[in-house]
């Protein structure tokens, strides 16, 4: 897929939990080598959309298409094999394995097993020093987030889905994260960021989609959309983003 053309597409996604409509016909394109952000208030359906793309929630209707392939019915692990990697909002590293071992697990679950990719991921996330031999259990949140991102990258993904990647990070760590994510996009990786930190979104994303009540209500270049959001916030009960 050429840069800028959609790698992953969602079409008319509908999700219902016990009759409650969490996604009400969502379309989304993730263009190759671009950073796409999804923002919106608590309960808007952001995580549900994320799970539909990752394969952990099955829509009642609609499609998820990777390149030319319909992956709507594929489970999460099969999508990872095809190059759709993700991180977890709740950290999900193996506590008894070392940093390097955790990252190796990612390589085995990924699109191709490439030992070079493990080393590159460790280096990119600043985990190639002494820390690589430490058990993940003892590490601070900021380091664990880097381990998790390295693990996702170790499988050489085409698409990287990030759920609240800045959660629990300090300002310096967020700046470093933004630098890494920009480098990945420049290298051709396609990124989706679901994030409540609007400063990070403004700094990072090419395109932003605003969700409310299971629908995408605004989309466009990040500057335009986040400007519009201020106006929107003033005139509604929209009391911030989760
Ligand atoms: P967001 O990530 O934007 O906060 P979610 O996708 O988590 O929104 O949730 C969208 C709506 O679906 C919310 O009203 C939430 O309470 C509901 N919901 C999410 N997951 C479940 C579930 N497993 N069972 C029932 N309702 C759910
Ligand atoms: Mg959520």
From TrEMBL:
UniProt superkingdom: Bacteria
Subcellular location, record wording: Cell membrane
Span of domain ABC transporter: 8-238
Name listed for the protein in its UniProt record: ATP-binding cassette domain-containing protein
């Amino acid at each position: 897929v050429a840069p800028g053309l959609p790698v992953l597409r969602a079409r008319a996604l509908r999700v219902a939990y016990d009759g409650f409509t969490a996604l009400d016909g969502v379309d989304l394109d993730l263009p190759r080598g671009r950073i796409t952000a999804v923002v919106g208030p608590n309960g808007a359906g952001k995580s549900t959309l994320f799970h539909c793309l990752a394969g952990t929630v099955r829509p009642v209707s609609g499609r998820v298409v990777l390149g030319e392939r319909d992956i709507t019915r594929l489970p999460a692990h099969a999508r990872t094999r095809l190059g759709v990697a993700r991180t977890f909002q709740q950290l999900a590293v193996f506590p008894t394995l070392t940093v390097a071992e955790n990252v190796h697990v990612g390589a085995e679950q990924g699109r191709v097993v490439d030992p070079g990719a493990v080393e590159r991921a460790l280096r990119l996330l600043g985990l190639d020093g002494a820390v690589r031999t430490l058990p993940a259990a003892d590490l601070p949140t900021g380091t664990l987030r880097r381990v998790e991102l390295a693990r996702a990258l170790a499988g050489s993904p085409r698409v990287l889905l990030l759920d609240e990647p800045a959660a629990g990070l300090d300002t310096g760590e967020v700046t470093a994260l933004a630098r890494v994510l920009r480098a990945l996009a420049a290298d051709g990786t396609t990124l989706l960021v679901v994030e409540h930190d609007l400063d990070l979104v403004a700094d990072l994303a090419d395109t932003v989609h605003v969700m409310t009540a299971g629908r995408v209500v605004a989309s466009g270049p990040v500057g335009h959309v986040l400007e519009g959001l201020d106006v929107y916030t003033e005139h509604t009960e929209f009391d911030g983003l989760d």
